């Protein structure tokens, strides 16, 4: 179906479409009801009913939303489903549902809806689409090419389902290591987050799918690590740590953005004029449309206690933010509230038209008026070998070898093995939350046969005979029976190597708030029990955030930080442990060793060695023991750095640049990849150092190469402007 417009009446500029002007022509003809409808987004669950163990679209409910002139739908009907008769819609079922919705809305209103979904590590909710490692793993690659692949296939497979809008990438800069959304970030460094985010946005939008930066801004700045708690940030932190990733994607042309759940410096972001208008629209010059997060506007009443009722919440959002669309999400109440506010003169028609125009502009950019059900040509590509290979290579590149005592790895498959632990035979735990369902799934039955569990992949290498024993021994919460320990110890004692895979249960968002910072005691006790045997322990950490290990890393001969590599992760882990793949990942965050709040909440740039340093308050360094530092990662070879050269040793704000060259050599016996990281320390800044440049090189044994980075005064500068006055960086000479 196409929406027929008189294209000859739509403006063009020197042969290039002027989408703003085109959108204005359309919006100028809309009634207030139509304009407010464009600003309203509703969960698809509103129009779904269960029939014969299937979820189907209810035409009468779609008609109701079409009569309300709703402009957008979101989500999967299976996102929070507890039914076990299906793990979701395949691409054909999605297209059928989207077609029914679009047809009714276009017939009734003349305008297509824009559909949004959380395709955060692949097309999350499209059955049989290949799922990639989470963003935290992509950050560990220190290679934006893998971020591009993630965006490319997420965009392709989402579009194949007829969906036009992805809620991603996540651009939070990780801080407190207990925050439940660490897995959704690219790590704790703003440069890495910016580079990876830019790559994802560009690749998603290359598929004619809109990307959406989230969650604007400061969401990850929690001091306690609890999701959605109020955040307090200095202007320096806001502009120099949390803003750069958003600036990077806005400069790259991101079409949409999403607000956040938090109150920042006492004001909910959905009514925060300083961040939503002064910073976002004036300083960053974002001209796309901004959507709220789930029920975020109404949360000003029942969560933040900032508004007296829903009407007051909507009024505050419209008066003090640049939000364009409300993710309501469960009804059309936003429309009636907005109509009342407009009729009473509390929200102007200009404010409403501005938002509707931004939304319609994106619909035009996506060509939805001509092709509201895109992606028919991509249907047969979903789940193809190319995307499987890309996910596998990403998983391999993301694994971080953090300990390898006496080069115990790689393993010899001719030896005997005991495979154990809750994550050793569970693809769901390799994927975590935002996988098939919002909170993820446990087990393997919901996944197509693209990958294997860790024990299945490793057993296939060893050979399924008496040299490969498997016994889970303990569940993901740490529960086991008394005899489980005895059985596991007996099997471990008879094996040369015991591979223990453990970590976190699956969760998403605030449902991860209940977990302690330490791994469950039952899990650490299990490792300690097996460590009393004669076996060598190989520990594989499968977790979305760095849970405190309570000393078990010291008991292992080797430790592999796997993060959440998802369904191809079992193959990738096996490949690294047996040496088919030389590990090249590096930690994209600091892995703390103790539970003190300062230690958990301090990123690498607030540390000197194992000490936390609060330069803003001038306090003395405080001991903050870490398991492993940011950027740590071992290889099966070794690399040397030598002959560092600078083209200029002094930079002034007016000087152009300097180059830094270092010779990197592979000193070992196998080919390996090394991420070369360049940190700078700027005079007068609170950060001890900041990563500014990085690249990855591959070297054969004995090979050396010169790596050159170019630095400008901008790399040493910091934003010092008053918010709303235009961005201004000060680069102190040094």
UniProtKB/TrEMBL annotation:
E.C. code: 3.2.1.21
Domain named Glycoside hydrolase family 3 C-terminal: residues: 399-636
Cross-referenced InterPro entries: Cellulose_Degrad_GH3 (IPR051915), Fn3-like (IPR026891), GH (IPR017853), Glyco_hydro_3_C (IPR002772), Glyco_hydro_3_C_sf (IPR036881), Glyco_hydro_3_N (IPR001764), Glyco_hydro_3_N_sf (IPR036962), Ig-like_fold (IPR013783)
Catalyzed reactions per annotation: Hydrolysis of terminal, non-reducing beta-D-glucosyl residues with release of beta-D-glucose
GO BP terms: glucan catabolic process
Gene3D superfamilies linked: Glycoside hydrolase family 3 C-terminal domain, Glycoside hydrolase, family 3, N-terminal domain, Immunoglobulins
Originating organism: Aphanomyces astaci (Crayfish plague agent)
Location of the Glycoside hydrolase family 3 N-terminal domain: 32-362
Domain of life: Eukaryota
Assigned keywords, A-Z: Glycosidase, Hydrolase, Signal
GO molecular function: beta-glucosidase activity
Family label: Belongs to the glycosyl hydrolase 3 family.
Protein name: beta-glucosidase
Signal sequence annotation: 1-15
Domain Fibronectin type III-like: 674-719
